[in-house]
Amino acid sequence: MRRVRCRMSVLVPLALLAIPSFALSVTARAEDLASQVEEFLEARVQRDRFSGSILVARDGKVLVRRGYGMANLEHDVPNTPETKFRVGSITKQFTAMAVMILQEQGKIDVHEKIKKYLPDAPAAWDEICVQHLLTHTSGIPNFTGFPEYPEMMRRHMMLENLVDSFKGKALEFKPGEQFEYSNSGYVLLGYLIEKVSGKPYASVLQEAIFDPLGMKSTGYDNPIPVLKHRASGYAGRGPFRVNASFIDMTVPHAAGALYSTVDDLFLWDRALLTEMLVPQAAREAMFTPIEEGYGYGWVITKQFGRRSVSHGGGINGFVARFLRFPDDGVCVVVLSNVEGTDAWALADDLAAVTLGEKPNHTGNRKEASPSDKEGASPLKEKP
Questions:
Q1: Which of 194, 195, 281, 309 has the lowest CB atom count within 10 Å?
Q2: CA dihedral 362, 57, 308, 349 (to 10 degrees)
Q3: What is the pLDDT of residues 109-142, one digit of tens each?
Q4: Distance (Å, rounded) from C-alpha 219 to C-alpha 201?
C-alpha cells in the first residue's frame, strides 16, 4: 500500500506538470515563427521601401501586425494597423457574399437568369445567369478597359448610368463558355443587389456583413465625410512619390469601392471559417472554382502544394492582397497605399515563411502597374 501511495504521489505532480509544459512548447514555437516572419519582413520592407500595413496569422494567432511607411506624406502621418486603405477588387468577395446572403433569404438564385431580376436587361443578356456574373463568365465586356475609361473614372456616376456604359456593348463570347475578368459583371451584381433588396449596395453590406462581424473599419469609400485613419494613395517608384490619379468611388462600385484595415480583414478571415453569415453549403459554393480557378469572388488554386483562397486588388494609389490557406490556418493581408507595389509576391513570400516553405526572394512575379487599376485581373494568380 505504501508503494502504491508513493507512486501516486510522484505520478500526479508529473501529470499536472505535463500540461503547462506542452503549452509552453506551443507558445515557444509560435514565438519562434513570429520572429522568423518579422525578420524576413524587415529585410523585404527595407529592400522594397514598402508603404502600407501587413498582418500575418496562423491558427487564429496574429504573428505580425504592423504598419510601414507613411499614410500621408504631406503631414508625415505613419501607416499603422488601424490605417484604412482602399482595397480595390477585394471588394468582389463581399459582393459575392451579399449575393449568397440574399439567396439564403430567398430573394435571389445564382442559377437563375438575371432577366428575372432585371426585366429591362437587353436581349443580348437573355442567357446570362447570376453565376456567370460571379465567375466572370458572362461575356459582358470590362468597362475599365474601354478607351473612355480614363475620363469616365473622374466623373460622379449614378449606378444606372454606369450600367448603361456597357449595357449596349456586344458580348465577347456566349455566356458560360469562357472566362474573362470583368468589372462590369460585378457592377451589375451591385445593381442587382439593390434591385432585389430595395436598399443601396453600401447599406446591404453594412447591415448583412460588416455590422454582424464587428468590422467597424470597413465600408464603401466616400471622400466627402471625414474618415479617421484614411490613407492617401500615391504613385511613383523608389523614393519618388506623387499623388495618385483621382477616381470617383461611384465608378468602381461593387467591383472595387471598399476600404478596410488588416484587422478587419482578419475578422473576415475568421468568419469565413464559420456559419456566421451563410451555411456551409453556400460557403463551399463560393470556394468552388468554375473557370480558370475562379469561384464567387475568389481565386482558388494551389500554392506550396496546399489549397489557397485569395484575391488581389488594385485601384488608383492602392494595391492589396488577401491570401488564405484555410486548411493550414494561415492568413496574410498586405495593404499598400503606393501604386505598383508588388503585394502579390510579398504576400506569397510571407505565406511561404509561415508555412515553413522557401520564399521567392527575387520576387519574380509580374509587378503590379498603374494599368492594373481596379483589380485588372488578379488572375496573375492563375493556377
A1: 281
A2: 0
A3: 999 999 999 999 999 999 999 999 999 999 999 9
A4: 11
Within the chain, strands assigned E span 52-58, 61-68, 70-72, 77-78, 85-86, 219-220, 234-235, 242-243, 258-260, 299-303, 306-315, 318-325, 330-336
**Whether the Cβ atoms of residue 379 and residue 292 lie closer than 8 Å to each other:** yes
Strands 306-315 and 318-325: antiparallel
Which cell goes with 379?
488572375
Q: For the domain 37-381, what is the CATH code? A: 3.40.710.10
Nearest to 88 by CA among 288, 275, 341: 341
Amino acid at 182: S
Give the H/E segment covering residue 359.
none
The terminus-to-terminus CA distance of the chain in angstroms comes to: 67
- Residue 96 backbone class (left: φ over 0; alpha: ψ -120 to 50; beta: rest): alpha
Query: What's the one-letter identity of residue 287?
Result: F
What is the SS3 string spanning 82-115? Answer: CCEEECHHHHHHHHHHHHHHHHHCCCCCCCCEHH
CB atoms within 10 A of CB 88: 30
Give the pLDDT confidence of 279-302 residue by residue, as tens digits.
999 999 999 999 999 999 999 999
User: Could you read off the pLDDT of 57-88 as tens digits, one per residue?
Assistant: 999 999 999 999 999 999 999 999 999 999 99
DSSP 8-class letter at 296: S
Tell me the pLDDT tens digit for each residue of 14-60. Answer: 333 344 433 334 455 677 888 888 888 888 888 888 999 999 999 99
Residue with cell 494561415: 330
H/E stretch holding 246: none
Answer yes or no: is pLDDT of 382 > 50. Answer: no
What residue ranges do the domains of the chain occupy?
Answer: 37-381
Residue positions counted in the chain? 383
How many angstroms separate the Cα of 155 from the Cα of each of 36, 151, 252?
A: 46, 7, 11
Q: Pick from 254, 234, 247: which is nearest to 150 by CA?
A: 247
